[in-house]
Amino acid sequence: MDDHSPRADAPAPTGRVYETPPTERPITDAEAARAANLAANEHIKIASGYLRGTLADGLLKHATGAISEDDGQLVKFHGMYLQDDRDIRAERTKKKLDKAYSFMIRLRIAGGVVTPKQWLILDDIARTYAGNALRATTRQTFQYHGVIKSNLKRTMAAIDAALLDTIAACGDVNRNVMAATNPAQVGAHREALKLAKDISDSLLPKTSAWREIWLDGERVVGGEDAAEIEPIYGRTYLPRKFKTVVAVPPSNEVDIFAHDLGFIAILDKKNKLTGWNVTVGGGMGMTHGETDTFPRTADVMCFVKPEDALKAAEAVMTVQRDWGNRKNRKNARLKYTIERYGLAAFRAEVEKRVGKKLADPKPFTFTGNGDRYGWVEGEDGRHHLTLYVPSGRIKDVEGGPQFLSGFRRIAEVHEGDFRLTGNQNVIIANVPAAKKAEIDALVAEYGLTNGAGALRRNALACVALPTCGLALAESERYLPDLVSELEESLASHGLQDEDITIRSTGCPNGCARPFISEIGLVGRGPERYHLYLGAAFDGSRLSKLYREDVQASEIRGILDPLFADFAKNRQPGEHFGDFVIRAGHVAKTTNGPDFHARTGALKPAA
Ligand code: SRM
Ligand code: SF4
C-alpha cells in the first residue's frame, strides 16, 4: 500500500533542464493552414469544417463499405472507427476482394451509468446491427463492433433514442470521463459521478456536425467564427486524445495514474467531500523500439476546492491544447508536454488560467485497482452486485454464460441502474433488499455467476484481433487460456487465492493498461509478447520489461519459478509486483523516462 503525499517516487526535478513554455497559443488557424510541418491530422482537422469533412457524402457511396482516409480520421471524433475483419483479410486479398469493412462504434457514457431502459435499447441495437454483442471497455463505456456502413445512421438514431450519443468518444478531444463506481460509498460516488458528467458536458465539442450527419439535424449557422462554434477547442481541437477520470480512494479502479487528467476525492472523517487532488500527465501508449515514447504515471499536481474543479479541468486541457506537440503525434499527449516543460511550469500556467494559486495535494491512499466482486451494501441500505464479465464481452456463449440474454432479463425487472467499471465488468446497482433474490435467481439461471479464480478476476485484456487494426498479437482471445495455465502454476505453490493483477494487450498502445499491472504482456508479433513485471498493485508504479519477445508457450515456464520464490520468500501482505523488485528479479521503474532503463531479468529466477 503506497501513501501518496504527493507521489513518493516522483523523479527528483534537480538537474533536469526543461524547455521554455510557449508564451501564447502556438497556432492560429491561419498559421496552421500554412505550416507544412504540422502532423497530417492537424490539416485534416483544419479542412474539416468543424468535423464534417465529406462524411455525409461518403455515407451515400454504396460501392464501398469504407469511407475516405481523411474521413476515417474525422469519424473518430464522432465515436467511430473504420475496421475490417482481420481473420479473413488474407483470404479476401487472395480472392482479390475488398476488405470486409465495418465500423466500431463507441458510446459516451460519463461514469459508465446506464438505466435499465437504456440497457434494453442498447441490447436491441446489439441484436439488430452489431452481431449480438456489446463490448464493455476499459474506460467504462460500450462499443459495438461490426456495424456496416449502410446501418450506421440507423444505429446512431437508435443510440439517440436511448438518450445517449457517441460524440467525442474517440478523436483529439476530451474523451468519455470515467468515475469511481464505489457502490458502497454512495455520497462519494454521487460527487464523483456529478463531476465526471459536468466535465464531460463542459468539455464536449460544440459543433453541430454530429447531429447533422447522423440524425439529419439542421446545420446550426453561426458563421465561421471559431470562438463561436468551438469556444474551447477552436478549429484544430487538441493535439491528441485527452482522457479524464475521477477516483474515490481507497479504490483506484479507474486507474487514475494512466490518464491525462484525474481528480482524487479527498473526504473528511464523515466521508464528506472537501475537494479534489488533481493529477496530470498519465498515459500508457508507446511504440516498440522507440525509447522517446513511453508510458508514464500521472503526477499529483495540486488540490482544488469543489467549486474550482471544473475550472481546473478546463485549464489543464487548454494548456495542453496550447502547449502540446502538434508536429509529432507520437509525442503529443499531455505526458510528453509535462516532460518537456516540467510540472512546475505547467502548474503555474494552470494557476494563471484558473485565476488563483492552488493548494498542494492532500494525502490519500489507494489499496488496489481491481473491482470488488459480489454483493455489497451501500451507506443507504441499497445493494449492489458486481459481476465478472470476461473481457467485457456481453454476448451469449454457446454452452456457457448467456451474458446478453441474462443482462436483458435483469434489465426487464431491475429498478436501479447498471454501472460499467474500468475493469470491463458490470455492476447491477441500487437493488432494494427485497429484489436481491430475484436478481440472484436470474444471475444463476443465465450462468452469470462469477466462479473466477483470483488471477482471472484480476485479469484484463484489450480487444486486439480480429477487429483492431493495430494488433500485433492476440489478446482477448488468448489471455483466458494463459490465465488457466498460470492458475495451475499458482495453485501448485499454494497461491490460488492470491490477488495478482495480469493484463495483456495486442500491441504497446496499452489499451488494457498493461504497464501498471503486476504481470503485463504486450504483443510483439503472432504468439510473441514482451513480459513486464514489477508494477504496483494499486496502479501507481510502472512495470519494467523483464523478458523480451517470448513465445506464448514459454510464459508459464518463465513465471513459475518466480511464483515459487514469491510463495517461499514474500513478506506478510507483500504483493507480487513489490516482491519481484525487493527480491532483485527486476529493477524498479520510477517513472516514464526511466521505463526503458535497466530492463531485463536481474538474476536467474530458479
Ligand atoms: Fe485504446 C487505439 C481499443 C482503452 C491507448 N484502442 C485503439 C483502437 C481504437 C485502435 C485504432 O486506433 O485503430 C482500438 C480499437 C479496438 C477494437 O477493435 O475495439 C482501441 N482502447 C480500446 C478499448 C476498447 C480496449 C478494451 O479492450 O476495452 C478501450 C476503449 C476505451 C474507451 O471506452 O474509450 C481502450 N486505449 C485505452 C486505454 C486505457 C485507458 O485509457 O484507460 C489506453 C491507454 C491509456 C492511454 O491512452 O495512454 C489506450 N488506444 C490507445 C492508443 C495509444 C495512445 C497513445 O498515447 O499512444 C491507441 C492508438 C492511438 O491512439 O494512436 C489506441
Ligand atoms: Fe488494439 Fe493495441 Fe489497443 Fe489492443 S492495445 S486494442 S491491440 S490498439
UniProtKB/TrEMBL annotation:
GO terms for molecular function: 4 iron, 4 sulfur cluster binding; heme binding; metal ion binding; NADP binding; sulfite reductase (ferredoxin) activity; sulfite reductase (NADPH) activity. Its EC number is 1.8.1.2. HAMAP family: CysI (MF_01540). It is an enzyme of class 1 (oxidoreductase). This is Sulfite reductase [NADPH] hemoprotein beta-component. Residues 100-161, 379-445 form the Nitrite/Sulfite reductase ferredoxin-like domain. It holds the Pfam family NIR_SIR_ferr. Belongs to the nitrite and sulfite reductase 4Fe-4S domain family. The keyword Chaperone does not apply. It comes from Methylobacterium gregans. Component of the sulfite reductase complex that catalyzes the 6-electron reduction of sulfite to sulfide. This is one of several activities required for the biosynthesis of L-cysteine from sulfate. Residues 1-24 are annotated as: Disordered. It catalyses: hydrogen sulfide + 3 NADP(+) + 3 H2O = sulfite + 3 NADPH + 4 H(+). Siroheme binds at C511. One of its GO terms (biological process) is cysteine biosynthetic process. GO terms for cellular component: sulfite reductase complex (NADPH). [4Fe-4S] cluster binds at C462, C468, C507, C511. Alpha(8)-beta(8). The alpha component is a flavoprotein, the beta component is a hemoprotein.
